[in-house]
Specification:
By secondary structure, the chain is of the alpha+beta class. It folds into 4 domains: about 30-150, 2-Layer Sandwich (Beta-Lactamase), CATH 3.30.450; about 170-285, 2-Layer Sandwich (Beta-Lactamase), CATH 3.30.450; about 300-395, 2-Layer Sandwich (Beta-Lactamase), CATH 3.30.450; about 400-465. Helices cover about 45% and strands about 25% of the residues. The protein contains 14 helices and 15 strands. It has helices at about 10-45, 60-70, 70-75, 90-100, 150-170, 190-195, 210, 215-230, 280-295, 315-320, 325-330, 345-355, 400-450, 460-470, and strands at about 45-50, 55-60, 105-115, 120-130, 135-145, 175-180, 185, 235-240, 255-260, 270-275, 300-305, 310-315, 360-365, 370-385, 385-395. The strands form 3 sheets. Strands 2-1-5-4-3 form a 5-stranded antiparallel beta sheet. Helix 13 (about 400-450) runs antiparallel to helix 14. The relative contact order is 0.04.
């Protein structure tokens, strides 16, 4: 069979037709591709935007419009940085410029856009460069993924963590926590300071052996932690001396609690330790015990009353002196043992006590058997926790009273004796005065005559001497 021959014109025409057909097919494919791209662009569940080399929006999809709250027409009037958070503008601008100058082929960044309603929304932006038919930069295509809910949740968690950290750092107790391998996962500021660490973060990842040069100490603490985790039972408020003394040589005391941390399924995931320095409290308690012991063992008796003269505490000496049990006295009032303390008189005395602070006076107390006891009372006004009360220190002065009576009787007896002596001397003085006058008179006469004639002793003088002798 003979092959048909074609002229050059026919061949050229066939080539043109084939080229036109191929171009038509290419255009159809391009149209289909563009249609497919537009569908992907506009129907994408994440934001899609096209931005000019000058930074203006060229195209946006519905997801992005919904994300930022603006219509497409409104966005066409903006540059992308006009709705970018001020703190994110620099990194956005730098990334955009590096992309359009082809220093990078694409970028990813996290940024905030301002919603039309005024609040900020968060996004992860992936940008890449779009080239024209000649291979030159034409625009920037960006995918914007809304991560607002995730960021808000992260910020909420971060805020809660910061709030929890503030709480832990402001409570007076020392707090630490470890995982099941007994590796420290954190602590509060007070624990870090007590352990002489630079910061709470320093302890993360450490063990007790990293903190204590003496391995026995580390082993001791780890054994206690293991015991608590194994038992799943908390050990609360164990009082123990701190191994290291204070700078002034004092023994420090700690209140230690260990709690196993469990997840929602009851599995132990670590241990929480709470330590409180109770040295000052223990010292105060010791002083209080000493005070209570001293009051209880005092020979004087103590009576504590409220402002209505009702007893609310007494010591053993009061029970011994008055013959009542402690329970009986706590049901009584002052007037039940002191007849001078009538209700009206007590009210007046209480007001005076508040003004003066304290005063001392004597009174008489009645025992359960009706015996009267002379007492000296020092009553003081005290106020504690916005409550008024009186503290009476009572001393039995019966012996002193008896001594005072005996002394008074002795004084009166001495005064009586002195008066009798004075009366006796007065009488004796009168009885002695007459003979003494005679003696003195005759003595003076003899002295006169002897001065005249010292050698002559007259018979008259002898008579005078006889009289003196009889007077003696």
């Amino acid at each position: 069979m003979k092959t048909p021959e074609f002229s050059e014109t026919q061949i050229l025409q066939q080539q043109i037709e084939a080229e036109i057909k191929a171009r038509q097919q290419l255009e159809i494919a391009l149209q289909e591709s563009q249609s497919h791209w537009r569908d992907l662009f506009h129907l994408s569940p994440i934001g899609m935007v096209e931005i000019s080399l000058e930074g203006r929006f060229l195209e946006v999809n519905c997801s992005f419009c919904k994300f930022v709250g603006y219509s497409k027409a409104e966005l066409m009037e903006f540059q992308f940085n006009q709705i970018t958070h001020p703190d994110d503008q620099e990194i956005s601008f730098v990334s955009f410029n590096q992309l359009i100058t082809q220093k990078i082929s694409q970028f990813q960044l996290e940024k905030r856009y301002q919603n039309k309603q005024g609040h900020w929304v968060y996004a992860i932006v992936n940008g890449y460069l779009r080239l024209d038919s000649q291979g030159k930069p034409y625009s920037v295509m960006s995918q914007i993924q809304n991560i607002t809910q995730r960021k808000l949740a992260e910020e909420d968690i971060k805020e809660r963590e910061e709030y929890l950290r503030l709480i832990l750092n402001n409570i007076p107790q020392q707090v630490f926590w470890k995982d099941t391998n007994l590796v420290f996962r954190g602590c509060n500021k007070n624990w870090a300071e007590a352990a002489q660490l630079e910061s709470p973060e320093y302890v993360i990842g450490k063990t007790d052996h990293d903190l204590f040069s003496d391995t026995k100490i580390g082993d001791f603490f780890r054994a206690q932690d293991r015991r608590v985790m194994a038992s799943k039972q908390a050990e609360m408020h164990l009082i123990a001396p701190k191994q290291k003394l204070a700078a002034d040589g004092r023994q420090l005391w700690l209140d230690i609690s260990r709690i196993p941390m469990q997840d929602s399924d009851g599995n132990v995931i670590g241990i929480l330790g709470v330590i409180e320095d109770i040295t000052e409290r223990k010292e105060i308690n010791e002083k209080l015990k000493l005070t209570q012991f001293s009051i209880e063992k005092s020979r004087d008796y103590f009576l504590f009353t409220d402002s209505k003269a009702q007893f609310f505490d007494v010591n053993q000496a009061a029970c011994n002196a008055l013959g009542y049990s402690r329970e009986e006295l706590l049901k009584m009032r002052v007037k039940d043992i002191d007849t001078q303390a009538l209700d009206d008189a007590w009210s007046i005395s209480w007001e005076e006590l508040k003004q003066q602070g304290s005063f001392t006076f004597e009174s008489v107390h009645l025992t359960k058997t009706g015996q009267e006891i002379s007492v000296e009372i020092t009553l003081s006004y005290l106020e504690y926790n916005n409550k008024e009360y009186g503290c009476a220190i009572v001393r039995d002065i019966c012996d002193r009273k008896q001594a005072e009576i005996a002394l008074q009787q002795a004084k009166e007896a001495a005064e009586t004796a002195n008066r009798a002596k004075s009366e006796f001397l007065a009488r004796m003085s009168h009885e002695l005065r007459t003979p003494m006058n005679a003696i003195l008179g005759f003595t003076q006469l003899i002295e006169r005559d002897l001065k005249r004639n010292p050698l002559v002793l007259l018979a008259e003088h002898q008579e005078h001497l006889d009289i003196i002798g009889r007077s003696g």
